[in-house]
Input
Amino acid sequence: MEVVSHMIVRTSPGKRDAAIEAYRKRDVLRECADVIPGFIRGELLVCQDDLDVLCVATHWKSADDYQQWLDHPLRADQSNELVPFAAAAPESSVYEVGLSWIAT
Output
């Protein structure tokens, strides 16, 4: 069953734009897709209520696919590169998709 992970990243004050650029430059989401076949899609969301907060939302074919990503060495490599922008350790949650609708 499809799952969605949300990783909330609180950036250090004034480092949000640099963090976004680092995600783009590294092409973080494409890297996920390249190494884990169960990756469906991902988004880097910029909070409109708190300018120092980002959310990385990723969709996976299954919880096992997401676990493969958590265990993959590339994830650790990405994390190490992006840590300088963070004010604290990211907080992650995983959700099973209970209902979905895509407008046409």
